[in-house]
Design a protein that fits this description.
260 residues, alpha+beta, Jelly Rolls, 9-stranded antiparallel sheet, 4 helices, 18% helix
Length: 260
């Protein structure tokens, strides 16, 4: 008889509580959830900061710009000029760590954040508003793009929750913060360890005036949906449980026959 089946059949003679302990002790796959509702930047590592000539760009934890309380605040001043300008930074949370080699391949990622965008461009226009979840892996940064409500300038969106479920590796494109440009590569959801966070990209076309923009963030939630299969031993347990049931019935029938 197969050794695994022999061991499972031997369980039939154990007290019920002991058998239950053995059968429920195997680990199961579980999602991993990361949250941040204060944005203490001591917990983050930033990418290099990209800025076009003439732009002024700052980011910091603010005591009261969150939703509510503390949050993340990023500000930019766009210069007047004939050229498009932009600025970008990525922030990876050092505690938002996941290792597919030990925790299992990633099936998908759910992401949400509360965001308030203010754009003080002095003429009527519509400014886009995007939440960009970030992955850092092997020293490279990858950004997804989740669109949120835009703002008619000058004005603010007020806080809105921007979210999307089921983000795949193909939704994250590599971004080079040294040049401010996207590349074609994607992260490996079954590869090396990674950190999660968010990024902000500001951009402006040509303008005859200098103006400012601000993005405030709070209540960041990232869920790693784990694609780890059940441990290899569990299918044997499932098969063995059926054998145990049959074995138990046979024992009862034999006992009943002897009693008759």
């Amino acid at each position: 008889m197969h050794k695994a089946l022999s061991a499972l059949m031997a369980l039939a003679i154990l007290p019920g509580s002991q058998a239950a302990l053995i059968l429920t002790s195997a680990p199961a796959a579980a999602n991993v959830v990361f949250t941040d509702d204060t944005f203490n930047l001591a917990n983050y590592t930033s990418s290099s900061v990209f800025t076009s000539p003439g732009t002024t760009f700052t980011f910091n934890q603010c005591a009261s710009c969150g939703h509510p309380g503390a949050g993340l605040q990023l500000k930019i001043t766009f210069p007047a000029g004939p050229s498009s300008t932009s600025a970008a930074v990525g922030l990876a949370n050092n505690s938002f760590s996941y290792n597919p080699h030990t925790q299992g391949a990633i099936l998908s990622i759910d992401a949400s954040v509360d965001k308030n965008l203010t754009d003080n461009y002095p003429f009527t226009a519509v400014a886009g508003n995007t939440f960009r979840p970030l992955i850092e892996q092997d020293g490279n940064f990858y950004l997804a793009a989740i669109p949120g409500p835009g703002v008619t300038t000058p004005g603010s969106t007020g806080y809105n929750n921007i979210s999307k479920s089921g983000l795949l590796a193909s939704n994250f494109l590599q971004f080079d913060f040294a040049t401010g440009s996207f590349l074609a590569a994607n992260p490996n959801f079954d590869g090396d360890p990674m950190l999660f966070g968010l990024a902000q990209i500001f951009s402006s076309g040509t303008t005859t005036v200098s103006y400012t923009g601000e993005a405030d963030y709070d209540n960041l939630h990232l869920t790693v949906v784990n694609a780890t299969p059940l441990p290899a031993a569990l299918p044997l347990f499932a098969t063995g449980l059926g054998a145990l049931g049959l074995f138990g019935r046979l024992r009862r029938r034999k006992a009943a026959s002897a009693a008759a």
